[in-house]
Amino acid sequence: MQGLVVKKVADNFWVKAGDDAFVCVARGALKANGVFVGDRVEFDPNNNPATIEKVEKRKNIFVRPPLCNLDALVITIAQVPQPDYMIVDKLILFSLCYGVEPIIVVNKKDIDAGICAYVKQTYGKAVKNIIFTNAHTGEGVEDLKSAIRGKLCAFAGQSAVGKSALVNSILKKHASLVGELSIKIERGKNTTRHCEIFFEDGCLITDTAGFSSLDEKLLPIAYYELPYYYPDYVAIMQDCKYKSCVHYNESLTDCAIKRAVEEGMLDKDRYLRYKEIYKTLNNKWVKTHG
After folding, report:
1. Could you tell me how many helices (H) and strands (E) the chain has, helices first?
2. Cα distance between residue 59 and residue 70, in whole Å
3. Over 50: is that where the pLDDT of 176 sits?
4. 66: part of which helix (H) or strand (E)?
5. CA dihedral 85, 88, 94, 97 (to 10 degrees)
6. Which end of the chain has fewer CB atoms surrounding its CB within 10 Å, N or C?
7. 101 bridge partner residues
8. Separation between Cα atoms, residue 228 and residue 68, nearest integer Å
9. How far from the centroid of its chain's Cα atoms is residue 44's Cα?
10. Residue 173 Cα distances to 76, 169, 180, 181, 207, angstroms
11. Are 154 and 208 in contact (CB under 8 A)?
12. Distance of CA 186 to the CA centre of its chain
């Protein structure tokens, strides 16, 4: 049979096939190579215990948390606490590097419409979906569900922006079972004991902690590849004088990105954060390659 690994506790895996779930163990070499929540597998339910026989090819894989085949990352911000847009930029970057769709959610939107306008202006060309919600009133939740339906997704963002409230408003029948359904960014605050996928109305949401470090030095790209992971830059890069332009030390006349920032077409603060990330990746390259 074929199924989806939806939960792992110790050496046991819960595999969902249709409306049923089977508790399985990994067979042979799979014990060493690992089976992750999110894996699509072939398993034999007739063995005692049921055994996972094969893992299908993965689109992505993460060790912390132990999760694979993630489709979307819901990056959640609010007015309070004050948004850390460097975290937003890094989460978008991490998403695109691993073939994950970044979705930005501005929660508690009744507090300040100004943040909504700023996010839309700054990130409107960087991500496909920007959704404005109020988890307590339910406003915008259906739009969020439409954006993630059929996708395996996780939530990320600073503490106290309403990630749990948003997730619980979607996973109504699971709300009493779910604590902090989010990817935690703060180190040392990981309280979730296992990784699990919950289903509700076609939405697949992971209850997971991890991604505890957003260190750009861990990105699987070289410094000179960075511009290609900024969709809002890619459309303008063709007007740079040099094809090898990385939009860092080039002159204003030679670099289309710098001109766009100067003319207000691109957000200046986002560009300055880009330069910080570029510098870190460049330093990593120098240390690695000399």
Report:
1. 8, 13
2. 8
3. no
4. none
5. -90
6. C
7. 72
8. 24
9. 32
10. 22, 9, 15, 14, 14
11. yes
12. 15
DSSP code string of 165-206: HHHHHHSGGGGGG-S--SB--STT-----SEEEEEETTEEEE
Indicate the DSSP class of residue 218: G
How many Cβ atoms from other residues are within 10 Å of residue 251's Cβ? 9
The number of beta carbons lying within 10 Å of the beta carbon of residue 109 is 19
Report all structural domains of the chain as residue ranges with CATH numbers, in order of start.
2-57 (2.40.50.140), 67-207 (3.40.50.300), 218-289 (1.10.40.50)
Strands 12-17 and 67-68 come out as unpaired
Q: CA dist 215 to 81, 89, 281, 287, Å?
A: 21, 12, 10, 16
Q: How many CB atoms lie within 10 A of CB 211?
A: 19
Q: Locate 90 and state its tokens.
A: 């890094």
The residues with which 249 forms a beta bridge, in sequence order, are none
pLDDT tens-digit series, residues 114-148: 888 999 999 999 999 999 998 888 899 999 999 99
ω into 81 cis (within 30 of 0): yes
Confidence of residue 282 (pLDDT cuts 50, 70, 90): very high
Placement of tokens 């990630």 in the chain: 163
pTM above 0.85? yes
**Token pair for residue 178?**
């779910």
Unique residue bearing structure tokens 């996928």? 197
Q: How far, rounded to the nearest angstrom, does the alpha carbon of residue 178 sit from its chain's CA centroid?
A: 19
Residue-wise DSSP of 85-131: HHHHHHHHHHHHHTT-EEEEEE-STTS-HHHHHHHHHHHTTT-SEEE
Query: Are β-strands 203-207 and 195-200 bridged in parallel, bridged antiparallel, or unpaired?
Result: antiparallel
How far is the C-alpha of 99 from the C-alpha of 120, rounded, in Å? 22
* Per-residue model confidence as pLDDT tens digits over 34-89: 899 999 999 999 999 999 999 999 999 987 778 899 999 999 998 888 899 999 99
For residue 17, the model assigns a pLDDT of 96
